[in-house]
Structures are given as structure tokens and as C-alpha cells.
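Input.
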Amino acid sequence: MIATLLFVVFVLMMLAGVPIGASLGLAGAAAIALANADSQWFGLLAVPQNFYAGLGKYPLLAIPMFVLVGSIFDRSGVALRLVNFATAIVGRGPGMLPVVVIGVAMFMGGISGSGPATAAAVGGVMIAAMTRAGYVPAFSASVVGAAASIDILIPPSIAFIVYSVLVPGVSVPAIFAAGMLPGLLVGLALMVPAVWLSRKHSMGLHEALLPRPPFWASLREASWGLMAPVVILGGMRAGWFTPTEAAVVAVFYGLFVGMVIYRTIRVRDLFVILRESGELSAIILLVVALAGIFAYSLSTLGIIDPVTEAIVNSGLGEYGVLALLMLLLVAVGMFLDGISIFLIFVPLLLPIANHFHWDPVWFGVLLTMMVALGQFTPPIAVNLMVSCRIAGVRMEQTVPWVMWLLVALLSVLVLVIAFPQVALWLPTRLGY
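Output.
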């Protein structure tokens, strides 16, 4: 009865427009109070305790820092310089600008790990350029939204950090390494339909008339941005600093590039940057803390075990259960961001993974890819919503283009399911 009430209250509050964090916390607190009806006030002491426990984890310190890094690099002009360098490499011609978009988005993912931030940074530079080159605005928005979804796979990924906190025995370096190869494969897979659609529909015909940026000059301009992932990931691999410390190093590196090298960030801009990143970090960490209350209510009410038994004994088998989880998470990913999905569903799904003896690192990559699918699947998709707003198109206009891009990402997901070593080879090679 109480378990049913927990989910009913949560869903009703979400439908009423209550923020996801408040819905999680209030539904969890109500369930805890009803479960301890005889000693209600004593039982409610679990609410502040679990609120604090949800935040009191060292790896979470990296989240506000990486959010700040994304904001700094967004304003420093790194995206524009990376676009010029990528264009100098791939050249001009039909289908080449979408390749540039996807390549730059993958690289930006190696700096901040935030999909909406990348969609805003890359879309702000590229959508207008693609329109001038003869690409349909809805197609441009689709490519940017899909490319930004790769960011939660390529380290440093905020979603991976949250997953490592939720799952015992999964280290941040291991899950970072596991996402690298699948993230690169997704990027390459997205390029195939993007180029094919461009040429099939004769888009980008004006692109060949535009001048190609000089290679060495664009390389020199982009070199400081190109070094950012090397500093962040290389420093972690060399053992110079932990992932959390790497985020702090990345902040100072970004400020140095923006204020000293490019001089695109002034002292008075710092207040705006700090305010924006502080607001976004507060939202993320508040959701994390309130989700701790929800997770505690799940465990104390004994909801997880019956759900696990029902799925495991459904007769679907291992791959049938994976297909069911894929449909569930892609559907949920249309409405919620990756961090909220992990906080809600990982406590429920982890016992299923343990039952089938799935590697937790591999399972984390799979969950993240499923969430990435949902982030640019209409009708409600976080990344696609940002790119559509920049392009000035309605989301339903992107459906004919998005479907092909979804098939590309889905093909890589099936590959990772069939061959787990695609995700596990690099962390094993690096000794994680």
C-alpha cells in the first residue's frame, strides 16, 4: 500500500509540474512517515540524515567544477576555434559541416561532459553556418542534438560520476575509460547517416563555395582548446590528480585560456559565469540529495526485492530483460535528464544486474547509452530542445531526420551488448 503510494505521489507531482528533486524528496518523506506511523517524528529523522548522506560523497565535488569548466569554455570562444580547425581537416562540401558538428561536440564532451551545454555552444556557432550553407534548419538542429548526446559517454561525464557514486566498486577512472570507445563509435556512427542524408537531399551545396580555413593557422588558434582533454584525462591517467582534483585543474586551465590567451573573458564576466554554473550545480546537487531520501524509502519499504523478482522471473531471459530496460530508459530519457534517471532507477536496476552477473562498469555504459538515446528522441528531449530553440524550429519538424540518427546510436548500443569488451577493453588495458 505504502509502496504504491510512493510512486503515485511521485508521478502525480511530476505531472503537476513540481520539480523532479522536490517530487523525489516529498514522495520519499511521505512514505517514510507512513511506514513509521507509530513513531512518525522519530522516523522522519531519516529524512535529513539521508539528505546529507546523498551529498556527503567526495566524487560529487567534481560536478560543480565540471559544470564551471563547461561555462568557462563556452564563453572563451573555444568552440568557434575548434570548428575552424575541424573544417580545415575535413574540408568543404556536401555533408562536411555535419561531420564538423559531430567531431566538435565529441571534443567538447571531453571538456565538460554536459549535453545541453554542448548543444548550446556548438549550436550557437554551427546552426547559422549550416543554414547559410544550404542545410535545412530542422536537419541542423537534429544533428546538433544528437551530437550533444555523445557528451555523457565521453569523459569527463557528470552522469558517469553519479553512477560511480551510486554503485559500489565502480571507480570514476574505470567508468570514464569504459565510455571512451563506445563514445567514439557513436560519433562515427552518427556521421554516416548525417553525410548520407545531406547528399541525398542535396543539402550543403553552397558549402563548397565557402573558403576553407588554413590548416596551420586554425591549428595554432585551436591548440589551447585541444590541450584541455589532454590536461584533464592525461593528468588523471598519469596519477597527478584524482578526477575531482582534475576538475579543479580544468577550471584554472580554462580561466587561463579565456582570460590570458584568447582574452575573451573579462573580470566582470566572471560573476555571470560563476552565477550560471552555481545555479546549475545547485540544481543538480539538490536533486542528488533529495533522491537519497527517495532511495532510502525504496530500500526500507522493501520495494526493490519484489520488483527484481518480478522482472527476473518474467521468463524474458537475459536479453529480453535488457530489451525491456532499453525501452523503459529510452522512454524515460525523453522526459528526464540522465542524472535524474540514474538517481531514480539505478537502485532498482542494480539487483537485476547482480542477478545476471553483469559487469557493473559495462552495465553503467549501457544505461548511459540508453539515456543518450532518449535525450534526442522527440517529443521531449533535453538536447534537441536546446538545438531546436537555437534553430527556430518546432521539435516535430526534426522527426524525419532524428529517426536515422537514432538508428545509428542504437546500432552501437547493440554492438556493446553483443560484445561487452567494446566497453571493457580499455579499462582492463589500463588496469582499472
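The CA atoms of residues 113 and 152 lie 6 Å apart.
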